[in-house]
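Morning, I've got a small favour to ask if you have a moment. I owe you a coffee for this, so here goes:

…
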Amino acid sequence: MLEKSKLILGHNSFFGINHADYDKGKYTSEQFINNYKKIIEVIDFANSNEINNFMISTLDESKFLIDELEKSDLLKKMSFYILLPYINKYVRKSNEIGLIGIIKEQLAKASLSKNLKHSVNLSTYFLNFDFKKILSSLVDIELQSFEKVNKKIVILHDALTDILLSLKKVEIFEFFIELVEKKHKCQAGFATKNFVNLDNLFKKININTTILTHANHIGFNMNPGKIEVENSFKKTTNKIILMSVLASGYLKPEIALKYVKNLELHDYEVVIGSSKKEHISEIISLSS
């Protein structure tokens, strides 16, 4: 059986994010849109059943959800796994206002003092295309809404991780870990759709960290292939957070959790996306 302490409640279902079925995700989001009370009820139910870990992206709605969690007194009971940046936000706006426009728009949400600080950065890092300054400012901006929460880990989105991986930007991986641990006082991690290659790189440069990646019975989003990823799991020294174990709702919890158990991982956690109490109850019944 899977220990409940290893379970992380994911936010995707609340905000219509479904990696396999857009229409299904949209339908689910319509049940919660502008109705944070319903989201709070599901999170409260999970908390009352000892699932206190919550994974969330830095989407615009997160600020309002955190405000509601604070009002309900749930916030202090929860540990947050923060995935940044919410990449769809940048992709959606990039064609309209460009990269600099997006960052300036994000800066507008900060205090005046922070705006001045980051504006100075803008004038330097775009001249030199300094990855470290870009990443440092990006992390600061994205975490503005999370100042009140118990941050357990900050995870770099796979869209950026996999770009850095393809470019073999070792120094940026090392910089991100140092930045998060020293400045934001929590663990750092990386999401990837290329676990085998990322894990191999980290072995070469002696990085031991946390990797968020896809793993499920049907091999959905497991690259370069299910068997290769499973073999890499057996040899890794990194902690693994498994996502998409239900393959975006395609698999039943019993099959999904049996698959996780059969992997025989040592240091791992599992993200479960669920918008209904009965689904959470079913997963809990299969856990210890």
